[in-house]
Design a protein that fits this description.
Length: 312
Amino acid sequence: MSLSKDFLWGGAVAANQCEGAYDADGKGLSLVDVLPAGEERQIPLFNPAKGLKETFDYYPSHESIDFYHRYEEDIKLFAEMGYKVLRMSISWPRIFPKGDESEPNEQGLAFYDKVFDTLKAYDIEPLVTLNHFDTPLYLAQEYGGWYNRKTIDFFVNYSRVVFERYKDKVKYWLTHNEINMILHIPYIGGGLIIEDEANAEQIKYQAAHHLLVGSSLATKVGKEINPDFQIGCMLAAGEVYPNTCHPQDMLAALQKNREQYIFIDVQSRGEYPSYSKRMFEELGVEIQQEQGDAEILKAHTVDFISFSYYSS
């Protein structure tokens, strides 16, 4: 078996994991910027007026591998490894520090211009994620993250700016990284800080609906700016296997897999799958949809499905 000449072999980084320079050149804080390392790692306690209530010795994202200052030598190393594609992300708070501004941060935009130009010089295709666990912290603090429908508008505005700026430099895009992670790590996945007494499932699935509508609207905007864009979705995949061949085990595995497939069903087929109605009823979830949401999801589906898979 041989791969075709246009097969895109490469690797991946994420802005929140590699860039560092967490407060440089006008960048705002992201969700990850306030997560410490170590056994005491926890969702931070906020006081919007004073910042963090607790501080720790080390926050990994603050320096990371300093890709922000070392991108040229890093990309050169990628080229030496034979990369044909680099999956990467744009830091949303590097472009809109708080997330709700009307005008972007030019220094942030200029940084990614340089990254894309360097990739082009080495004939490496960028595959760019718009939101890779990088919702601006301010949106989590002041708006409640993706549970608040206003976040859709902020995301679409950010997407429009980025699409327009790089329409001639980037062809392949992803809207949200591992969109189903909002169910498992809701703070990172959606900027959700859920109180113990809250209906967590209702909050997570309502926020997930907003993520899905935001993905469709961003896809719509991207296609309007450049019809040649290829815009995809992204799932954290992990196949659930039945413990035995007993029908109950087979059904349990099917139901667990559906918890992740529901996201890419909506993004690729344009509607909630039939099994979702019963699933939501059993969870006690009632998603609030605004008029027109179903039409938005149906009209603006993705071009491809991508996934991460960390198992054997």
